[in-house]
């Protein structure tokens, strides 16, 4: 494994490259909001399995998260899309010619909004328990109108991570952008192969959202993980099944 620091706008991002030698194939993993490049351990496990089929992997921290620069309250959807573009560009410069994008939760929305038309070497999309429609998050416990009013008053709303309990400041600009972007629309207009993976016990985002969007997309597969919670890390069976279906999908990408 190699820890890499690289530039994205005014921030220095941090990521880990798990490298399969003599291969130009890589899966880029994009974590959820308030998370980091390990995704509660799920991305670490996946990276190990990818080596077995000849794929490198790169998992990184978005700006304002983990070991990357930036303040949490300054993180926006636009900045995360830019982070992902700069990550793809960096790996292209390292010689990776076959790229698969995998996003989890909020990161799945960022992957969905990626400008695929600009990158011929992005071959497929994988979306784990994806936040593909910000209206779903608005009526949950994150981007609600009440929370946005607090952000208007203070400049940010303080949220706590479901998994770590750590506080994360959601900035006002981020709240505003959730009204401007519709990740699922970009997916519907994209012809790349797509895999949607979601747990039937997800308490943060209902699996019906992934199922609904997958049915509207061409070249799409939906897999429901039995007893899978958000992150799939609630049980060995759930994360192992999620990784298995992901690996099988990747094997079939030309």
How would you describe the overall organization of this protein?
The protein has 254 residues and is of the alpha/beta class. The chain has one domain: Rossmann fold. It is built from nine helices and ten strands. The chain has helices spanning 42-51, 77-93, 106-112, 134-138, 145-154, 172-177, 183-188, 207-216, 236-251; strands spanning 2-8, 11-18, 25-30, 56-61, 98-104, 122-128, 156-160, 167-171, 194-199, 220-225. The strands form two sheets. It has an eight-stranded mixed beta sheet, with helices on both faces. A two-stranded antiparallel ribbon has the order 7-8. The longest helix is centred in the middle third of the chain and has 17 residues, at 77-93. It starts with a strand and ends with a helix. 47% of the residues are buried.
The helix content is 25-40%
Low-pLDDT segments, ≥5 res: none
Determine Rg (CA atoms, Å): 17 Å
SS field, number of helical segments: 9
Looking at CATH, which topology would you report?
Rossmann fold
Helix-strand category: alpha/beta
- CATH top level is Alpha Beta
In angstroms, what separates the terminal alpha carbons? 26 Å
In CATH, what is the homologous superfamily? Alpha/Beta hydrolase fold, catalytic domain
Quaternary: single chain
Count the beta strands.
10
- Rounded mean pLDDT is 94
User: How many domain units?
Assistant: 1
Q: Return the CATH architecture.
A: 3-Layer(aba) Sandwich
Tell the overall outline. Answer: globular
């Amino acid at each position: 494994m190699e820890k890499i620091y690289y530039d994205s706008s005014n921030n220095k991002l941090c990521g880990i490259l798990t490298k399969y030698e003599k291969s130009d194939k890589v899966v880029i993993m994009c974590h959820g909001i308030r998370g980091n490049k390990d995704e509660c351990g799920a991305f670490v496990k996946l990276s190990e399995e990818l080596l077995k089929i000849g794929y490198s992997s790169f998992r990184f921290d978005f700006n304002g998260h983990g070991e990357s620069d930036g303040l949490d309250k300054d993180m926006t959807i636009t900045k995360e899309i830019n982070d992902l573009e700069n990550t793809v560009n960096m790996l292209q410069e390292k010689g990776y010619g076959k790229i698969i994008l995998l996003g989890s939760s909020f990161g799945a929305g960022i992957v969905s909004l990626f400008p695929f038309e600009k990158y011929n070497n992005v071959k497929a999309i994988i979306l784990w328990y994806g936040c593909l429609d910000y209206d779903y998050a608005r009526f949950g416990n994150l981007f609600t109108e009440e929370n946005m009013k607090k952000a208007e008053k203070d400049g940010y709303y303080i949220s706590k991570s479901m998994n770590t309990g750590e506080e994360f400041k959601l900035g006002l600009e981020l709240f505003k952008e959730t009204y401007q972007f519709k990740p699922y629309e970009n997916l519907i207009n994209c012809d790349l192969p797509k895999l949607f993976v979601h747990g039937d016990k997800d308490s943060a985002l209902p699996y019906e959202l992934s199922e609904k969007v997958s049915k509207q997309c061409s070249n799409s597969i939906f897999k429901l993980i039995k007893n899978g919670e958000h992150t799939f890390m609630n049980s060995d069976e759930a994360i192992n099944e999620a990784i298995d279906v992901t690996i099988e999908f990747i094997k079939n990408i030309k």
